[in-house]
Every structure is written in structure tokens, then in C-alpha cells.
Amino acid sequence: MKVLAIDPGYARCGVAVVEKNGGREILIYSDCIETSAKADFAARLATVADECTRLMKIHLPDAVAIEKLYFTSNQKTAMRVAEVRGALIQAASNEHIAVFEYGPGEVKSAVASSGRADKQQVAKMLHALLTIENEIRHDDEYDAIAIGVTHLARHR
Question: What range does the domain containing 55 cover?
């Protein structure tokens, strides 16, 4: 099984392609899609959706796993991230790929055995579970990898 995992955002959107092969999870690809703060929201949304669609066409995942929205104190940001999620769910639907959603606590629990794990604990466990060859520059990328690992653990 191969999954495109997404930590949705419009400034930075973490993406990862993780595959279960022979009982082991393999990181095929990970990156952070970054958009310019100078661009209007519609352009930023299009950039993220287009890049995720491109990844779907290249990697042909069996599923898309995306983080559920959790509300922060900044409602404007939460609304924008919700719009990004909608565009990404629609993009997966257009490619006939099933979408699965996971909450932050569920992801932390699946990867680090605790729903209260911090970002460093999650990153450390990801390095123990997978071979990560490239340097990870942003937490969003680690989050996407963790979402992918969660999906593979939940859908054996």
C-alpha cells in the first residue's frame, strides 16, 4: 500500500509518500510545499492543490491521508486551512483516490505511543521507524510523514 500523506497549510504544506512493502514502511518522498506570503490566497491555494495533484499523478497512491483540522486561537488561519483541506480532498476525489483523515493526537499516538508526544519525540520515532535520507527543514514535513505512517498502521 502506498499513501500520499498531507499536513495541510497554505504557507507551508507538508507532503510525504510512504509505502508499506514487505512489512516495513518506506519513505519514498517528502517535502514542504511553500507559497509566497505576497501572493493572494487564491494563488496560494492553487499552488498547493496543483502540487498535490501532481504528486498524486506521479506516485499513484492507493490513498490520501490528511490531518484533521483542529482549531487554534486564530480563527482566520483555521478557516484558510479548512479551505486548503477542501481543495485537497476535492483533488484526491478527482483522481479517484480514497481520503482518510487523522487527528493530531491519533497521529502522535500511532507514531510515538502517546497522544501527548511533542514534535521532537515524534521526529525521533520517525527516524527509528523509517530511513529518512534527506534533511527535514520544517515540522510540517515530519507531520506529513507521521500521518503516512499512521495510515499504514491503521489500514494493514
Answer: 2-154
C-alpha cell, 111: 507514531
Strands 2-7 and 12-21: antiparallel
Lowest mean pLDDT among 31-35, 41-45, 131-135, 145-149: 131-135
* Catalytic residue status for 31: no
Residues above pLDDT 70, as percent of the chain = 97
139 is catalytic: no
Catalytic residue among 19, 25, 31, 140: 140
Give dist(CA 156, CA 153) in Å, integer. Answer: 6
133 is catalytic: no
Q: Which of 19, 34, 67, 141 is catalytic?
A: 67
Please pick, among 7, 19, 34, 141, the residue that the annotation labels catalytic.
Answer: 7
Residue 59 has pLDDT above 90, yes or no: yes
At residue 71, the pLDDT reads: 64
- Could you give the CA distance from residue 151 to residue 147 in angstroms, rounded to a whole number? 6
Domain count, the chain: 1
Q: Provide φ and ψ at 17, rounded to 5°.
A: -115, 120
> What CATH number does residue 8 fall under?
3.30.420.10
For residue 54, the tally of other CB atoms under 10 A from its CB is 11
